[in-house]
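Fold it.
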Amino acid sequence: MQKYLRVWAPFLVVAAGVPLAVGLVPPNSIYGLRTTRTKSSPDVWYKANHTAGLALVAAGCASAALNFLIAGKLGRRLNGTQLNLAYTGALLVPLAIAALVSFLATPPE
């Protein structure tokens, strides 16, 4: 199960980001970057979610690249626990950076 999650999680992140990046997601209360500022106007919503979508796509691609790196030479040097931590970090660190970039790039009111 973990093996498949390592492969699919980055692609799911990319799949979540693409509709936001291309402006297919209208203002709503479920999906997208929802802050007081993004809820204030559709223009702010689309600009902020465009940036958030691009950040998610970049995070998913970075996570996939890190997973391949870990699966290669680096993974052979790690025990099971270290390997799981490495894969978890390879997903969560790019996502955290994407979240930070998204909030910092949100246009002011």
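Helices lie at 2-21, 36-40, 42-76, 80-104.
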